[in-house]
Specification:
This protein is an alpha/beta fold. It is built from 9 helices and 8 strands. Helix content is 48%, strand content 15%. Helix 1 crosses helix 3 (50-100) and helix 3 (50-100) packs across helix 5 (112-125).
Length: 280
Amino acid sequence: MARRQRKSDFDQTVAALARLPWPVCLVLALVAWLGFHKLAQIQPPGAQHMAQLTGSIQATIFKTVGMFLQVLAPIALLLAALMSWLAKRRRIKLLAEAESRTSTAPLQQLSWREFEQLVGAHFERLGYAVSFTANGADGGVDVVAKKGSESFLIQCKQWRATQIGVSVVRELFGVMTARGATGAFVVSIGAFSKDAKAFAEGRNIELVDANSLLRSANRDQHNSAATSTFSQSSARSQNPNCPKCGASMVRRVAKQGANKGQAFYGCSTYPQCRGTLPAM
């Protein structure tokens, strides 16, 4: 059997960059060209004596590096942007196909990578910018979803026969706290244990049934409030209104200060309004 050809360092770098959203890659390509182009314009000073020779050599090295990377770095980033854009198109198609199925069995037949891509596509449709982590990296986090200044960690579990235990949720909460994320989601085909549900409650961690998620998305995809598919409807309906502006409030967890780790309600219009209420 023929051996798999090892990817070059350039290919590996492009593949890693392609995990970023494609607009980010385009911006980075422009920044890289501007930065390295400026470096390539350095004019090494003339060395009149030995004391100036070191400075002249260093300037020459910087100029050479700039001339080389002002072309290579933008090319790598543009290729990564193209790969990221194509991957997003594939995710959209995968999501549409999954939502059109009436049976849940095909969802279980997806590969683990396709399952992650499908979950990421759903968050993208809700207005999040998503990026995918390397295999096994970041404490089991598979997808990072960002909207504005808030970031959410997503762990995808394609377990069928085994329940998702509390250890999975506890580990994700530790990573969420360490990284200062606003919240986290565990999206699973299989069921969650009672202990897992109990631990997640009040910690800004949503335990999501992948099948019901897709059904809800298909039903509410034109609803401006589609983000509620990731929350328990009964809990949302009990959220209070902001005492300052009257807008609805969102349950959050304090990331710093004396109340770090404690739940509270914050205004949904933050940072325009900073109204808060204690969570009972």
